[in-house]
Automatic annotation (TrEMBL):
Residues 393-404 have a biased composition (Polar residues). Residues 387-415 are annotated as: Disordered. This is AAA+ ATPase domain-containing protein. It is found in: Mitochondrion outer membrane. The chain crosses the membrane at residues 12-28. SMART domains: AAA. Pfam families: AAA, AAA_lid_3. It comes from Remersonia thermophila. It is a single-pass membrane protein.
């Protein structure tokens, strides 16, 4: 009898010990371990969230490629050991690549195409021929070998507001290639050496997702001229960037360059390091728009805006000489507010409630609306606008001397 009691006590003790051990294990795993991990790695939660967001972002890009008839693979034609392309499920990204993967932009998220850009047809055609086609359809250029491969770098430079960033957006939208919109903050880390690891992750991720385009806006701020008094970390980042960009691993075993293009935009080309410029053989100047480009920009910006029957778009295109595309857009925005402002004031002066406003009663935009703005000096007085509408075709030789080479009529201001 005593033996049975002793066995029962040992059984109960064993069960209690087992339950206690399991309970301690779960408590340690669910409460203590995350707390210790947070103390050891404060960014652990951020890295886990970045991994989930990066995976979701890449899944969206894969679905886009499936819709375009691609098999949803990433990488070059010979990326896999068996000659097959890497699939989304086969991609293994480290914590740094997951951070960079958050900067991968899906083409459907960019509502800008080449048709939305006024002018710059020559640059657009060359961008298609030298970047988009070699990246997305390499079989068309296979007869030329490495000579017809996409350039390792492309630089868009020119005055601010002339469409450099818009061109990059259009390239991302039209190409369908993996587009990494690299920000300065992405490469900035508080831990020494982490910035170099992020730079390496940019190129390793681009290689896994190729064809890829790495876009750096204001590239002069990231890869500017190296100086003797520069901070050590900044110099190391530039050196790492150049080594991976055009180093020993920039080609595959067959000697064919990776289908990776670094696309930069700047308005301070002289501040970019010479070694960086050497790695960007394709350089496209994006100047201020000429008369035809301004006309096209006005047509695109005004679009379906209600206009007065006597609205003179040609005249507006001529008087905006020297303005960038961004300036023209803002001028159109200010002009479009004039009829709306007039209608609101008239409606308010009549004592009617603002809830009864009818947008159809707002008049169309007039040429005069581009002249003068509340709080700013007007381009011209409305009374002399009509006298300025001199056609360059019907002008006399005397009038022709007052017309500049780009069609802008130089009219003296009246006191």
């Amino acid at each position: 009898m005593s033996d049975q009691k002793r066995a029962a006590r040992e059984l109960v003790s064993g069960l209690a010990l087992a339950v206690g051990t399991v309970s301690i294990f779960f408590i340690f795993r669910e409460i203590v371990a995350p707390y210790i991990a947070k103390l050891v790695d404060p960014d652990r939660e951020k890295h886990e969230q970045a991994q989930l967001k990066a995976k979701a972002n890449l899944q969206r890009i894969r679905r886009r490629r499936l819709q375009n008839g691609d098999e949803g693979g990433f990488g070059g034609d010979d990326e896999g050991s068996d000659g097959s392309r890497l699939r989304m499920e086969d991609l293994v990204l480290n914590e740094y690549e997951n951070q960079v993967a958050l900067e991968v932009v899906a083409p459907e998220d960019i509502p800008v195409g080449f048709d939305d850009i006024g002018g710059l047809e020559d640059i657009i055609e060359e961008l298609k021929e030298s970047i988009i086609y070699p990246l997305t359809m390499p079989h068309l250029y296979r007869h030329g070998g490495a000579l017809l491969a996409a350039p390792s770098g492309v630089l868009l430079y020119g005055p601010p507001g002339c469409g450099k960033t818009m061109l990059a957006k259009a390239v991302a939208h039209e190409s369908g290639a993996s587009f990494i919109n690299l920000h300065i903050s992405t490469l900035t880390e508080k831990w020494y050496g982490d910035s170099n690891k992020l730079v390496r992750a940019v190129f390793s991720l681009a290689q896994k997702l190729q064809p890829s385009i790495i876009f750096i806006d204001e590239i002069d701020a990231v890869l500017g001229t190296r100086r003797s008094g520069e901070h050590e970390a900044s110099g190391m980042v530039k050196a790492e960037f150049m080594t991976l960009w055009d180093g020993l691993t920039s080609t595959n075993a067959a000697g064919v360059p990776n289908r990776i293009v670094v696309l930069g935009a700047t308005n301070r080309i002289n501040d970019i390091d010479e070694a960086i410029l050497r790695r960007m053989p394709k350089k496209f100047p994006v100047p201020l728009p000429d008369l035809e480009q301004r006309r096209r920009i006005l047509q695109l910006v005004l679009g379906n805006t209600k206009r007065d029957p006597e609205f003179n778009l040609e005249y507006i295109a001529r008087i905006t000489a020297g303005m960038s595309g961004s300036d023209i857009k803002e001028a159109c925005r200010d002009a479009a507010m004039v009829p709306m402002r007039e209608y609101i004031r008239q409606h308010r002066a009549s004592g009617q409630a603002m809830s009864t406003v009818n947008p159809d009663d707002v008049r169309g935009i007039r040429t005069e609306d581009f002249f003068g703005r509340r709080g700013a000096r007007p381009y011209a007085e409305p009374a002399v606008i009509h006298s300025r509408r001199v056609s360059t075709v019907d002008a006399t030789p005397t009038d022709q001397s007052k017309v500049s080479s780009d069609g802008y009529e130089e009219v003296e201001e009246e006191d």
